[in-house]
Amino acid sequence: MIPSILLRFAVATVVVMLDAVALRAGDDVAAIEQRLRQWTDAFNADQVEAVCDLFAPNLIANYRGQPEKNFDTLCSGLQRALTTSQRDHRYALELNEIMVSGDMAVVRLIWHLTVTDKETGEMMTSSDRGIDVFRRQPDGQWRIVRYIAYEME
C-alpha cells in the first residue's frame, strides 16, 4: 500500500502537470489569435510584404468553386489585390473556435470582406466561412498549412 503522503504528492504532481499543459494550450490559442489579427491589420493597411507571412510554404488552400492554391498562387493573388486593383479590400475577422493539440491547431472562422471601387465608391460585401489548419513552424511561428473556405449565403 502506498503511504498517503506519497499518494498526495503524486496527485499534486499530476495536477501541476495538467495545469502546465492547459497553460501552454492557452498561450498557443492566444498566439494564433494574435497572428490572425496581425494579418488582418497588415492586409487592411496594404502591407504587401506582410500578407504572406501567415501561410506556410507547403500551404494547400481550397475555396469552393476555385482551383486549389499553394503558397505561391495564394500569396501572389493577395499581393496583386493590394497593389494593382482598382478596388479597396478590407477584411474583418470573426473567430469561432481555436483548438490546439501539440504543434497542430484548427481554427473555425468567418472572414467578412468589404470591397470598395476606388472610382465610384460602390461597395460589395461577402462573408466566407472557413477552417484553417495551423502548424507550429521550425521558427516557432504558427502558420496556416491547409485551409478550406466557402462563401456564406
User: Distance N terminus to C terminus?
Assistant: 64 Å
Biggest sheet statistics = 6 strands, mixed
User: What pattern of helices and strands is seen along the backbone?
Assistant: HEEHEEEE
Number of DSSP E strands:
6
Radius of gyration: 20 Å
Q: Strand percentage, roughly? A: 35-45%
CATH class (first level) name: Alpha Beta
Number of H/I helices: 2
CATH topology: Nuclear Transport Factor 2, Chain: A
Q: How would you state the average pLDDT, rounded?
A: 89
Low-confidence stretches: 18-23
- What would you call the shape? elongated
Which CATH architecture is right? Roll
- Give the % helix: 25-40%
Total number of distinct structural domains: 1
Q: How are the strands ordered across the major sheet?
A: 2-1-6-5-4-3
- The structure class reads alpha+beta
